[in-house]
Design goal:
Length: 345
Amino acid sequence: METTPHETLYGKNPTELTVLCDRMGLPRFAARQLARWLYKRHTEDPARMTDLAAANRERLSAQFAPALAAPVRVTESADGTRKYLYATSGGHFVETAYIPDGERATLCVSSQAGCRMGCTFCATGRQGLQRSLTAAEILNQIVSLPERDRLTNLVFMGMGEPLDNTDNVLRALEIITSEWGFGWSPTRVTVSTAGVVPELGRLLDATRVHLAVSLHNPFHDERAAIMPVERVWPISEVAAILRQYDFTHQRRVSFEYILMEGLNDTPRHVRELCRLLNGIRCRINLIRFHRIPGSPYYSPAPEAMIRFRDALTARGIQTTIRASRGEDIQAACGLLSTSELNMKN
Ligand code: SF4
């Protein structure tokens, strides 16, 4: 089978690289050499792979397209958060947030351009889904980042629903966490989901990464009003799956809860959260709603955040308030790429 000009070397695992070597008549040990160049040295240009025979380098160069490209724009917040915009194929953009915090430096990566989950409080949801990213496009956000070598943690919390693009997200995670890949511990990686029930077990079985679930409201009807995914895959079903997994060793599950004034911040919500999460060893992260242009929702007062946190903690659920970062550069997911799209249209 001949390769197409759009096929990339970057994003292939060693099994696929071995198949590729067989197909092109390269020795099988070249697969290991290729993986080392791609994922240890972050070099995808065959011309620079000096331990391959010159003729093989030329053939690889002729057959594979480059996948890695620097971000096209950066916006920096007063608090040091940097929001990068990456171009993807088809003329779409995704954003990636670099969040330094003392010794830690977290990168928030996107898994799709746009998103079809339609959460009403989210700018990305308003774009709809443009396309799912390939594994190489997901990895490019890490590899082509100017601060790549300072990163300590990765979160899949940017644009898109990772479990609406499970194949490519699992492929990227395999490359990030394998010895032959980036060699990261899975405990440095968190995947966030709105709760795609049919794919959840697949992620939990295939990886050891941490999980974050976007909860935002424990009541079915109220959650469905802001997160259409609830109508198809209720949060109660997500909780039932999570009860089957062990979150006491190494792996953590947390629930993200964007507090919106008057909408999900009452004692009634506290009680229902405790009932819903009963039996799951977890943590709740409270996030202050970032008001986005045209949104009907409001940010709660800092005292309301503290009251809600204390009420949950008093009932035995470890709850933290996540510091808002990058508010001045519209760091809520989807905003930067939305404005880029608006400029183009
Ligand atoms: Fe998609 Fe996440 Fe936005 Fe919901 S919050 S629309 S899942 S990107």
